[in-house]
Structures
1.
Amino acid sequence: MKQRLVSFFLLLFLTACGGRSASPTIAAVSPTSTDAAPQPAAPKFEVLASTPLLADIAQNVAGERVHIGSVLPVGADPHSYQYTPQDVAKVADVELLILFDDKYELFLEPMLQAANGHMEFVYASMGVGKRLDPALGGFDPHIWLDPNNVIACVENIREGLTHLDPDGAAVYKANADAYAAELQALDAWIVEQVNQIPPEKRLLVTNHEALGYFAERYGFTVVGNVLPSFSADASPSAQQMAALIDQIKASGAPAIFLDAGDNPALAQQIADETGVRVVTDLHLESLTDGAPAATYIEMMKSNVTAIVDALK
Ligand SMILES: [Zn+2]
């Protein structure tokens, strides 16, 4: 009996180590191995998302079935991106293009006109209630900075992929459900982290107005922005700079938060006058190659850690 148990555990060990040919018994108990039942070849679809951030979200829904590329390279600013002839060639044969919103990815319209393609579109942020502030330039596009809004994006992406590839419906549904659960867990994690900051210290100053949805969800006040705009493609007047300095002093906000891609010159000037810290390593609109923001979820965790460290 003891000898048999030893053999059994040896078998388990060999199986775990990938020793599939160790014993014919293994093949007998797993007749549905991938060798025995080859999967039909996955369909080939040309699908692109506008930005690396959105491509990562969409890839979680597409899973192994469809590869989702990104129009923008990692680190490019979607607000101010200028398309290249290579981009035009890249989108020409695309069957499905996923974007957040036609008010955010302004580079897309002229690029798509130049490409003259015949793709379908998924507006990932469709149905998400948008923050409106005419003084800052209309609707706030930065919906993904609240993970609950990304759950709505996931549903729109699932519908778009299913329309393109109806045979994959069950796969996309299972992937979307699994990713939505991860996003809910992310939201719960953020709540837990933010609870380290006393409510009266939850004060944000950013380069442009990007953290409004985040602030609403997690109980922060946006004291002001270096660029009083929903876009990074703006510049402040001397009066606006002076007003922000007054707001920072009056509120006691201890830091200015910048995206890693922002020019820190103006923020530094304000910091010199107010004595606040400039945090320069948030990732709000794009991912990074590898850490700290290789995926949307890692990006959010990295941002929250930086904000909590500066404010708690
Ligand atoms: Zn932005």
Note: Residues 1-34 have pLDDT under 50 and may be disordered.
2.
Amino acid sequence: MPAVLPDEVLIRVNCCGICGSDLKIVSGIMGCLDNIVLGHEFSGVITSTGNKARRFKIGDMVVADPTLTCGNCEFCLDGKQNLCKNLGTGGNGELGVNINGAFAAFVKIRESNVYKLSDNISFEEATLVEPLACILNGFNRLNIKKNQTACIIGLGPTGLIWAELFRLRGIKVFGVEKSEFRCAFAQKFGITICQGDESNGFNFVIDSSGQAFELGVRLVKPAGKLVLFGMSPGHVEKIEPFLIAQKNVDILGVNMDSGTFKQAIKLLPRIRGKDIITHKFGLKDYREAFEVLGYDFASRRFARESTAVKVVICP
Ligand SMILES: [Zn+2]
Ligand SMILES: [Zn+2]
């Protein structure tokens, strides 16, 4: 049971989504502190509050921004908290990376990172607030106009959320994805699978895989925007920079949320979150939860084809 500091609250975790970054951590591609509890996309109920934490009462249904920032560095003061210079020091950092996260019965966190939910939203769907907030950090920078098109490379949970946001703005969405299962699944969201052969190009191309920079540059229209969103540390691609200059492409790098939690909570009921979540497991079945995503515990690799999209663990 974590002991809460005066400015913290204790949350009984109802549900926590498995993120692509958790998969990168368990397969050794991304780092985390030794013996840390993973999990950062969670919802739950306040069960106790520190003596200086007064914004919530016991029983409140909440989500929390898992990134604890200093609030004082040049980036924090500029509203770009995700770029905080002091992550990893002075109690700042990320839940599930260097602070114990929410694949657990209870998690504690600074009160200022916690947001109340309305009760018309389920705990399962509420786990999508965090990924949605990260996507909004990029989506808000797009300057969308009528009759534009978007193409999403990688149709996992985040790719589908990107597609939902474009749909809400009346933008036709195309998709590129290797897995046949995910292609069929994405069509239920109105995404037209094009496998990268659309000759006219797209105004917006989102690389949600983290491994398709070169393809993205090819697919984006002149004067279009290419968003690099998927995280794939160590992945290297060869590219001819001239193509980017010649097409006047804007390249946007996006990771983590940045003051977008409130907007995400407001938008969540408008996206088809329930349909993105395909599997639910109890905490003691965590092995199965990772295995259903294709993970092999013995080799620490993603060895199998998966027919899961978003998997959530519900302690
Ligand atoms: Zn995440
Ligand atoms: Zn900072």
Note: The mean pLDDT is 95.
